[in-house]
Amino acid sequence: MFGFWKTWKALEARGIMGINRRNADYVLKYNKRSLYPIVDDKIITKERAIKAGIHVPELYGVISTEKEIDNLDKIIGERNDFVIKPAQGAGGDGIIVVADRFEGRYRTVSGKIIGHEELEHHISSILTGLYSLGGHRDRALIEYRVIPDQIFKSISYEGVPDIRIIVLMGYPVMAMLRLPTRQSGGKANLHQGAIGVGVDLATGQTLRGTWLNNIITKHPDTTNAVDGVQLPYWDGFMNLAAGCYELCGLGYIGVDMVLDQEKGPLILELNARPGLNIQIANDCGLTLRTHAVEARLEELKARGITETVRERVEFVQEMFGHIPAVEG
What we know:
By secondary structure, the protein is α+β, with helices and mostly antiparallel strands. The protein folds into two domains: 17-39 and 149-320, ATP-grasp fold, B domain (D-amino Acid Aminotransferase, Chain A, domain 1, 2-Layer Sandwich), CATH 3.30.470.20; 58-143, Dna Ligase, domain 1, CATH 3.30.1490. 33% of the residues lie in helices and 23% in strands. It has helices at 2-13, 19-30, 36-40, 42-51, 72-76, 116-128, 234-248, 278-282, 286-303, 309-320; strands spanning 59-63, 82-86, 96-102, 105-108, 113-114, 140-143, 162-168, 171-179, 195-199, 206-211, 214-216, 252-260, 264-271. The strands form two sheets. The protein has a seven-stranded antiparallel sheet with strand order 11-10-9-8-7-12-13. Strand 7 (162-168) and strand 8 form a beta hairpin. Helix 7 packs across helix 10 (309-320). The radius of gyration is 20 Å and the shape is globular. The N and C termini lie far apart (51 Å). Mean pLDDT is 90; it is low at 1-8.
């Protein structure tokens, strides 16, 4: 018992946030339940983002009923690649990524060949709520397939790497690059075997990685180093993430973004209950940073000041970034 207490106190001293603290001090405190549909439903999130002028993967169509499955051919049209996903899915479940056509069938990114009837059956499963939060009836999205920027080619296996930034009241506090692996089936989901790589908030340079709760420096499939990679458009990603506070009104969120080789930074989805593995990837506790932001908010409130998106980003980059000292 003493050993457990000692370990817990050590983690607390490093500012490591646990699930109970996340839920009580941040999710419940800063996220109004009435606003959850904005982030839990990808269609609503996408509509809000488009209205705000924020770039998202293009939506080709939505299927809401069994009858509308007949519209799939019309929605797909002559496109060779597209994505089918549940509007209220979680953890990457229920997503089919079609990369090409083959002899009247479809080839997924993993190389599996599936027929049109299989796609229709999958959409039917989505509608029944098989992949949705709480098992409620759902809708299916058919949208643009993101083509990852070439910078990820050497450090990712199939799939689409994404960038998760946790944002508190409009202030980005921690970032992570999530890299698909063979074990994760090409999905950027840590629980399924993807890699989480910490990212320096100031520079956008990758730090160390974590895979299956182990610290790593190389991708298990490509064997290339995952640290020291400079992510392009980093200030753009930071500004996008910070602006999502105004987009959804939720105070504590995870913003998931991708870098498309043609369209640049795109927002995939928002999460009102972001996971905590990001702390392992960054070798840093979230609480140390969230407390600093809360102190900043109290200070600004006393002075009657509200910071802009850019000012919020500059504050966290100066406060939490690991900018190397310039040799003089």
